[in-house]
Amino acid sequence: MFCAILALVALAYILWDVNYFLRIAFTIVTGRLFQKRCGINDTTTIYGFCTTQDVDIFLKHMNNARYVRELDFARFHFYDRTGIYDNIKAAKGHALQGASSIRYRRTIPIFSFYKVETKLVYWEDKTLFIEQKFITTSDGFVRAIVLSRQNLLEVDAARLFKDIPGADSKPECPEEIRHWLQSIEISSARLRKKD
Description:
The chain is an alpha+beta fold. It is 42% helix and 26% strand. A 5-stranded antiparallel beta sheet has the order 1-3-4-5-2, sandwiched between helices.
C-alpha cells in the first residue's frame, strides 16, 4: 500500500508541477481565511521567501523565471480577493496573460523575505492592465516592477466587475501603459509583415 501511494506521488510530480498547484491552493486559502475582500482599486499583497529552490546558477539571488512564477500566485490572489475570479467563473470566461514587461531594479538575495503587491491600474472592455511590485521587507525597496496585460475571453469588463466596489469609475490610462501598448503594436506590425 505504501509503495503504491509513493508511486502515485512520484508520478504526480513527474507529470505535473505539484508544488505550483499546492502554492496556488495555499495562497488562495490563506487569503480567504485571513484577509477581507477588497475592491478593484485596492492593492493586494502576498509574501514570499527566496530559498535555495528559487536561486540562479550563482546561488546568490532569485532566478528571473521565479519572478514570473510568483506573479501568477499574486495575480490569482488578487482575482480571488476582489471577486474577479468568481465573476469569471460565473461567466465561464477566462483571463489569459497577453503580455508582460518586467523591469528588474535590484536582485532579491537568497534567504530574503519579500512581498508582491498587485494593483489593477487600467482596463478596457476585453483587457485588464495589472501592475505588480516585488518589495523586500527588510528595506522596503522595490526590487522589480511588472506590467501585465490580461486578455479576457468569453467575458467583458462590465460583467467581470459586476458587484465589485470601485468599478464605477474607470481610471485614466497611465502614460507608461500608453507607451507600452505602442511598443507592443510596433512589434506586432513587424511580425505581421513576416507572416
